[in-house]
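Dear Dr. K.,

Following up on our conversation at the group meeting, I've run the structure prediction for pantoate--beta-alanine ligase (AMP-forming) from Pseudopedobacter saltans. I'm pasting the input sequence below exactly as I used it, so you can double-check it against your construct before we proceed with anything downstream. Let me know if the numbering doesn't match what you have in your notebook.
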Amino acid sequence: DIYLLESHGCHILFLPSVDEMYPNGQELKTPYDLGEIEHILEGEFRPGHFQGVCQVVHRLLNIVQPDQLFMGQKDYQQIMVVQKMMVEKNINVEMIIVPTLRAENGLALSSRNARLDEKAKENALVLSKALSNIKSNIDKMDFRLLEEEAKNEILNKGFSKVDYVSIRNAKDLTEVNKHGTSVPLVALTAAYIDGVRLIDNMLLQ
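The predicted C-alpha cells came back this morning:
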C-alpha cells in the first residue's frame, strides 16, 4: 500500500500504531446505534463487523479531521453504515463514493483475488455477469426470481456457497418487493469460491 501511494504522488501518510489509535484500549464501551442496516446482508453473516468498522473510522476522522472521506463502492453496505454513524455522531465530513475498480474482463479488483488461481478468477467473473443480468431484466421479471436465477448462475460456475444475492433500495438497503418501483435500486452479492469470500454490487438505474 505504501508503494502504491508513493507511486501515485502521495506526500503524507498517516500510519499510526495500535496504541495511538486506541490509547484507552480497543473495547467498544458504547455501541453505535446503526439500526437494522447493521444486521442485514453482510451484517447477518459477519455479526459485529460494522461496529468495528465504525469504531476505527470514527477514531480516524476524529484524529485527522479531514474535509472529505473517500470510500469504494465495492463495499456498498459499509458506505451506508459509515454514513449513518457520521450522522449519529454529527461528523461534518463529505463522503465521496469511488466507483468499483474492475479488471478489463469485469472482475471487481480485490486483494482477495490474489488467493485465487487463474481458473477461479475466470469463474469469479460470474458475479459481475449475474449482476448485469439482473440489471438487464430488472423491469421485466419478479425480483425474487431474478435473485434466485443469479444465485444458481453463480453456483453453476464453481462457487461452493452463496451467502446472498439481493435487490435492495440503494438509499438505505431496505427490501424492495416488485419491479416498476421508482426507488433507486442496487443488487448485491457475496459468495465463496475455493474458500475465498468475494463480494460485488451493481447500481441498477
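Two things stood out to me. The domain at 111-203 is CATH 3.30.1300.10 (Pantoate--beta-alanine Ligase; Chain: A,domain 2). Residues 53 and 82 are 8 Å apart (CA to CA).

Best regards,
J.T.
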